[in-house]
């Protein structure tokens, strides 16, 4: 290579360029006018995975246009891998013969990194969009959820009004008047006192009360009113309701134990009529559940904390099995031949409107306990 520098010539010296070609890191081929490889450097053998004798004197085989840089993919014989190469071509004249010098560079790894980069850019972009739209998305979800809940509530209300509402209105209309008449008749028989048929009278009265209860629950269910809140003495209210319910089941010999002392002097803000319905519904079920004579019902009440009272109503009836326990508050769920399945549903709704809570625990053959919690004040 000594000649370069001292003796620069205008045309390429053949020996010079051959030496340069052999030392280049890019693969270089010298191809004659017939497309036959006349010279290839070690980088070229490596690129194709071939020996020199497999290249020299063989057709080059790759299409080349003569000037611009082109990209071609080739399959390497050695490892069978397909690689991407960038091909440059230059035309020279050597001893009057036209020859092509082509250089090939493996750009697979460059392309791979480029692809990885553009993938990374796409991911970056997606991330950016997602974070930018996250708040918007969350807001939309909140809005949609709100709408759904609202329309579900409306639907529930509408179906209450349509199905049960019609039924309740009809039953109320059909039954209320005759019931009032029976009650009047029973009263006047009792007044006359000539051989008073006490047993029958009692039965009549009991039936009336029962029917009245059914009507009340049906009506409440179909158009449960917002509570009319006012301060009331909760102890006496429970006492009174328990007594009234017990009198309805007077033919059943059930022991009712009450411990309401802790409620002495406690007033809570509530709807008195609705709370009477709550306790009478729970107690009715308890009386239904217990046996004559062996039956026991406990009502224990007191403060749960500074803001709440708690009322526990337990019975020693047969209990509620696991599947039924999950459903007792469902409207129309009943295991009784003449039940409406509305008592506990109405009860729960009333308690919810009072910002209170109701729960039930039960053990097979041991009994059932309802827990009612009510706040002292309403917000
Ligand atoms: N104390 C209880 N003991 C056993 N089962 C009960 C008790 N309270 C409620 N249940 C069950 O819950 C069901 C639903 O009660 P409720 O809503 O009052 O409707 P209904 O009394 O008309 O059946 C009852 O049919 C009964 O199976
Ligand atoms: Mg009931």
Describe the overall structure.
- Residues 1-11 have low confidence and may be disordered.
- The chain has helices at residues 3-6, 14-23, 42-48, 108-192, 198-222, 234-248, 272-289, 322-325, 343-353, and strands spanning 27-32, 37-40, 70-75, 82-94, 97-106, 230-233, 255-259, 267-270, 296-303, 308-315, 357-363, 367-375.
- Among the domains are: 3-106, Beta-Lactamase (2-Layer Sandwich); 227-375, Heat Shock Protein 90 (2-Layer Sandwich).
- It has nine helices and twelve strands.
- Helices cover 47% and strands 22% of the residues.
- A five-stranded antiparallel β-sheet has the order 2-1-5-4-3.
- Helix 6 (234-248) crosses helix 7.
- It is α+β, with helices and mostly antiparallel strands.
- Strand 11 (357-363) and strand 12 (367-375) form a beta hairpin.
- The longest helix has 85 residues, at 108-192.
- It is rod-shaped.
- Magnesium ion (MG) binds next to helix 7.
Brief descriptors of the model:
379 residues; Beta-Lactamase; Heat Shock Protein 90; 5-stranded antiparallel beta sheet; disordered N terminus; binds adenosine-5'-diphosphate
CATH topology of one domain: Heat Shock Protein 90
Q: What is the CA-CA span between the terminal residues?
A: 100 Å
Question: What general form does the structure show?
Answer: rod-shaped
Could you give the count of β-strands? 12
The radius of gyration over CA amounts to 48 Å
Mean pLDDT comes to: 82
CATH architecture of one domain: 2-Layer Sandwich
- What is the helix/strand order? HHEEHEEEHHEHEEHEEHHEE
Separate helix tally: 9
Strand-residue proportion: 15-25%
Instruction: Tell me roughly what share of residues is in helical segments.
Output: 40-55%
């Amino acid at each position: 290579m000594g000649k370069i520098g001292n003796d620069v010539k205008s045309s390429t010296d053949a020996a010079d360029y051959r030496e340069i070609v052999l030392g280049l890191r890019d693969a270089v081929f010298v191809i004659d006018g017939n497309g036959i490889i006349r010279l290839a450097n070690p980088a070229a053998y490596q690129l194709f995975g071939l020996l020199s004798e497999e290249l020299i004197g063989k057709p080059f085989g790759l299409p080349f246009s003569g000037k611009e840089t082109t990209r071609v993919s080739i399959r390497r014989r050695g490892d069978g891998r397909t690689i991407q190469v960038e091909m440059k071509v230059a035309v020279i004249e050597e001893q009057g013969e036209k020859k092509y010098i082509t250089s090939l560079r493996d750009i697979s790894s460059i392309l791979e990194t480029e692809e990885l980069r553009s993938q990374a850019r796409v991911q970056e972009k997606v991330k950016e969009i997602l974070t930018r739209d996250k708040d918007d998305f969350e807001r939309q979800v909140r809005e949609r959820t709100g709408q759904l809940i609202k329309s579900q509530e409306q639907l529930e209300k509408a179906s209450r009004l349509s199905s049960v509402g019609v039924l309740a209105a009809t039953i109320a209309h059909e039954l209320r008047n005759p019931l009032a008449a029976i009650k009047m008749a029973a009263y006047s028989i009792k007044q006359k006192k000539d051989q008073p048929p006490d047993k029958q009278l009692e039965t009549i009265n009991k039936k009336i009360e029962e029917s009245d209860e059914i009507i009340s629950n049906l009506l409440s269910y179909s158009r449960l009113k917002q509570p009319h809140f006012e301060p009331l003495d909760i102890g006496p209210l429970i006492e009174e309701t328990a007594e009234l319910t017990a009198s309805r089941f007077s033919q059943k010999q059930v022991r009712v134990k009450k411990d309401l002392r802790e409620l002495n002097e406690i007033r809570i803000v509530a709807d008195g009529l609705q709370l009477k319905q709550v306790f009478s519904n729970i107690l009715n079920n308890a009386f239904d559940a217990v046996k004559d004579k062996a039956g026991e019902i406990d009502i224990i009440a007191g403060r749960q904390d500074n803001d709440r009272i708690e009322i526990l109503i337990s019975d020693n009836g047969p209990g509620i099995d696991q599947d039924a326990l999950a459903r007792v508050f469902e409207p129309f769920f009943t295991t009784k031949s003449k039940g409406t399945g509305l008592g506990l549903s109405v009860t729960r709704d009333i308690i919810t409107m009072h910002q209170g809570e109701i729960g039930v625990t039960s053990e097979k053959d041991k009994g059932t306990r309802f827990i009612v919690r009510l706040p002292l004040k309403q917000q």
